[in-house]
Amino acid sequence: MELRTASSPRDAKYYDTKRLREEFLVSDLFVPDEIRLIYSHIDRIIFGGAMPVNEALKLEAGDELRAKYFLERRELGIINIGGDGVIKADGVDYEIDARDGLYLGKGTKDIEFLSKDAANPAKFYMCSGPAHMTYPTKRILKDKKAEFDYDVEILPENKKELGSLEDSNHRTINKYILPGQVETCQLEMGLTHLEPGSVWNTMPCHTHDRRMEVYLYFDMPEDAFVMHFMGEPDETRHVVVRNEEAIISPSWSIHSGSGSRNYSFIWGMVGENQDFDDMDDVAMQDLR
C-alpha cells in the first residue's frame, strides 16, 4: 500500500509537472495477479486495483491500517472495468461481470478477487473510506436484471444522459453507489462514459469543500490521453492522464478533463456529506 500525504493549495500552485504527477497521479493500478492500493491522507480514502489472472487475490489490511482485516473500520466500493469476474465475500460468491459493481460494508472479513477467464481477466477498481456503522452488501448491475435480494439495478434517475455533441460533452452518467440506491457511511461511486466525438467532462467545472474525489480514466487506446485540469479556479494546472491511470482531486481543486478522443472514467468520493449536488460551481469566464 502506497501512502500519499495531503497538499496545500498554496504549495501546489508552485509545483512543476513532475511534482504534480508525483503528488496526484497514480499509474500501474492493474498488475497481473497483484492488488495495488494507494492510501491518501485526504479524507483517508484508499483506492486501487486488483487484477487476478492465474490465482485468487485476497484483500488484506496490511500494516498501514493497524487493523485485523481490511474492512474492520472501513467500507468498500468496487467496479469491474475488465473481463467477467467473481468476488468472494465472507463465503458468498458475487459474480461481478464487466461494468458491474459491488458494495461491501464495515465488518466484512474475507474478500477475494477472481477472474472467470485468464485470457480476459477482471480488473476490479475499488475505493474505500472510513465507516462508523455497517450497511448491507449490494451488487450493482449496470445493464442486467436483479436476481437476488442483494442486487440493485441502477435507478432511472441515476442513469442520466447529459450534454451534447455541439458542446463536446455528450455523456452518460451511471451513479452506482449513493444514497437512495446503495446506502453507505460516506462513500459514493459512479461511471461516466463519453460518446464518440465528445471529450469534455465536468465542464463547467466545480469544487466541493465537503468531499474529495478520485478519477480513474479508462477505455482509451495506448496513444490517447486526457488532459486533466486541477488546481484552484484561478490557479489551474494540467496533468496528462493515460489509460487506466487515476488522479487525486483535493476538495479545493477543480476536476475536469478533455481527451484526445472519447473515454470513460470512474469517480469515487468520500468526505463530510453525501449530497451529490453540494458543489460550488465555477463560471467559465472565471477560470484562470
Automatic annotation (TrEMBL):
InterPro entries documented for this protein: KduI, KduI/IolB_isomerase, KduI_N, RmlC-like_jellyroll, RmlC_Cupin_sf
Enzyme Commission number(s) from the entry: 5.3.1.17
Binding site for Zn(2+): H206, H208, E213, H255
Keywords: Isomerase, Metal-binding, Zinc
TM ranges: none
Superkingdom, taxonomy of origin: Bacteria
Catalytic activity: 5-dehydro-4-deoxy-D-glucuronate = 3-deoxy-D-glycero-2,5-hexodiulosonate
Cited PANTHER family: 4-DEOXY-L-THREO-5-HEXOSULOSE-URONATE KETOL-ISOMERASE (PTHR38461)
Cofactor: Zn(2+)
Pathway: Glycan metabolism; pectin degradation; 2-dehydro-3-deoxy-D-gluconate from pectin: step 4/5
Gene from which this protein is expressed: kduI
Cofactor notes: Binds 1 zinc ion per subunit.
Broad enzyme group: isomerase
Stated name of the protein: 4-deoxy-L-threo-5-hexosulose-uronate ketol-isomerase
Family note: Belongs to the KduI family.
GO biological process, one term: D-galacturonate catabolic process
The protein's role, per its UniProt record: Catalyzes the isomerization of 5-dehydro-4-deoxy-D-glucuronate to 3-deoxy-D-glycero-2,5-hexodiulosonate.
Molecular-function GO terms, alphabetical: 4-deoxy-L-threo-5-hexosulose-uronate ketol-isomerase activity; zinc ion binding
